[in-house]
């Protein structure tokens, strides 16, 4: 079998977005999970981009809609060089394909579920990374996705698998403890410290501590023994609850993003800063790049399945910096951030 036979076909940019990326057999009008998840991510993309454009005041999102020969497609939106955001991307995709074993390993963490041959799949999700210009305004990442795999053609009767994944996390260059506590409480992260924690507690009181730790463990740069940022919530391969409950949970978490993040930006976007503050922000963005290209499962899955490169690498900042053997002075604000990345804290 050739590589192209087990890869996602190359996308075609289209002039107008379609009404739906779903196939007729996916139950667009009968309330299927696929249909309702697509509706959720489309609505979230609209609401997040609207809120970010209103806050920025100058920048506008460029939109590219695309489809794939094998079915599905997506909408990529990126704002660059705005008044507040250096780069902000909010992408959605609803795609079908057949993935090679190495891509399945990137998509599914459980070693017990590994496959030896190509696996048909359906994947839908929204992914966003927001990089503000001001060093005192934190970067935000969020991603919520729904995944299904079918049995390979040579394995009749094998069960279809499905799972939800996602999370929201904050990556500041400087610590303002009240911002972090607000984020974690608003978005379920820290109550992500009231909105995130509230979102988790509404469904299961074990979710917040479990997913907060999962986030700390997942966004870990092993070769530096430090976290990418100050955490949030993260979950993956989640299918041990009712589908309806998990769809509602993912929706609740997604709805918490704007109220968790926008107030922080409004407070920090105009804070005075100097060149040393900006240089530290660029060094932390270098860490962001390292994690995404070396450890992130979503990036790995996209690259291994021949996905749309501009959409996959949308998460990378417009600028970053690597400085040889940089060590912040102990006790400095930069040192406090690095210490928190190396030793995760309970913010609420």
Tell me the domain tally: 1
- Cα distance, first to last residue? 52 Å
The residue ranges in which pLDDT falls below 50 over 5 or more consecutive positions are 1-8, 187-192
Write down the secondary-structure element order: EHEEEHEEEHHHEEEHHHHHH
User: What is the CATH class name?
Assistant: Alpha Beta
Q: What is the total tally of β strands?
A: 10
According to CATH, the fold-level topology is oxygen-dependent coproporphyrinogen oxidase
Write the CATH architecture name.
Answer: 3-Layer(aba) Sandwich
3D shape: globular
Which structural class best describes the helix and strand composition?
alpha+beta
Strand fraction equals: 15-25%
Total of DSSP H or I helical runs spanning 4+ residues: 11
Superfamily at the CATH H level? Coproporphyrinogen III oxidase, aerobic
Helical amount: 25-40%
How is the biggest beta sheet arranged? 8 strands, antiparallel
User: Biggest sheet: strands side by side, in what order?
Assistant: 1-2-3-4-5-6-7-10
| Global Rg | 20 Å
Mean pLDDT: 85
Keywords: Chlorophyll biosynthesis, Chloroplast, Heme biosynthesis, Oxidoreductase, Plastid, Porphyrin biosynthesis, Transit peptide
GO molecular function, one term: coproporphyrinogen oxidase activity
Subunit structure: Homodimer.
EC number: 1.3.3.3
